[in-house]
């Protein structure tokens, strides 16, 4: 989704105020630096991100990779034990939802809570993937490949500059996501109460169309995430916000994977 953490946090959004301060910064009173000191400062190497304490793209890549590694490892274990312990992924679903909301509304990211979110989501995805795989052999691998390909395609488009994230684009996506959320909740209630069977309103040709739209929205959300991270790096936000960027990307990737899993299953059905 268009990540709420990115949207409301001044470190990433376009409406943000001052860049969060970095502990350890020093200032020098005007007129106290002589010519020799200025020349030495001019000739010295540029400060690294470790010295400045600012977030870089490498920081985001490392944190995202770490979070995904935790998610995949837990998911693989849950995938294997789901037939014997089907309750694990259900617990993971509710815990992941709670931790996701907690992390989304924290102004300062907590690496421990974000990693805990990765554990919970890994349990959820491992279990639900096993259930889909038991019904539709090979669908999990197809969904994984589709997710990776979509991520790569959106990143290439964003880096090329051919797709721009504008305020109008963001508003359109938020409205579309709101409508999709309402539709999904209504459909879920109708299926759980027995009013509709199977996929509910998501079955048949209509379900395929809705699935394609949902995948398109998730891909568009990735573009917004990339743009938010770019703004954060350019504004020099503290390095600790790389965890927030990783959390935002993983939230969107989980959404994209689940939508692909559902869409491919409907097509197979």
From TrEMBL:
Q: Which Pfam families match?
A: BaxI_1
* Keyword annotations of the record: Membrane, Transmembrane, Transmembrane helix
The keyword Membrane appears for this protein: yes
> Where does the chain cross the membrane?
60-81, 87-105, 112-132, 138-158, 170-192, 204-226, 238-258
Domain of life, per the record? Bacteria
Looking up PANTHER family in the UniProt record yields: CONSERVED TRANSMEMBRANE PROTEIN-RELATED
Protein's UniProt name: YccA/Bax inhibitor family protein
Species name:
Luteimicrobium xylanilyticum
């Amino acid at each position: 989704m268009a990540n709420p953490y990115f949207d409301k946090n001044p470190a990433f959004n376009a409406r943000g105020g001052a860049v969060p301060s970095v502990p350890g910064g020093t200032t020098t009173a005007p007129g106290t630096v002589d010519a020799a000191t200025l020349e030495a400062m001019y000739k010295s190497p540029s400060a690294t991100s470790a010295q400045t304490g600012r977030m870089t793209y490498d920081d985001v890549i490392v944190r995202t990779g770490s979070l995904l590694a935790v998610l995949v490892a837990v998911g693989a274990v849950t995938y294997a034990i789901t037939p014997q312990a089907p309750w694990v992924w259900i617990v993971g679903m509710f815990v992941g939802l709670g931790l996701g909301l907690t992390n989304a509304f924290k102004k300062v990211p907590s690496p421990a809570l974000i990693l805990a979110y990765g554990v919970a989501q890994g349990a959820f995805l491992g279990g639900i993937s096993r259930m889909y795989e038991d019904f539709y052999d090979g669908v999990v691998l197809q969904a994984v490949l589709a997710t990776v390909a979509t991520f790569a395609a959106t990143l290439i488009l964003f880096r090329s500059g051919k797709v721009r994230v504008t305020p109008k684009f963001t508003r359109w996506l938020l409205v579309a996501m709101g409508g999709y959320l309402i539709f999904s909740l209504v459909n879920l209630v109708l299926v759980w109460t027995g009013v509709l069977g199977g996929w509910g309103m998501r079955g048949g040709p209509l379900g395929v169309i809705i699935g394609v739209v949902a995948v398109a929205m998730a891909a568009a959300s990735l573009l917004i995430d990339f743009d938010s991270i770019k703004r954060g790096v350019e504004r020099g936000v503290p390095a600790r916000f790389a965890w927030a960027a990783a959390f935002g990307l993983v939230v969107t990737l989980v959404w994209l994977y689940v939508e692909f899993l559902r869409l491919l299953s409907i097509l197979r059905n």
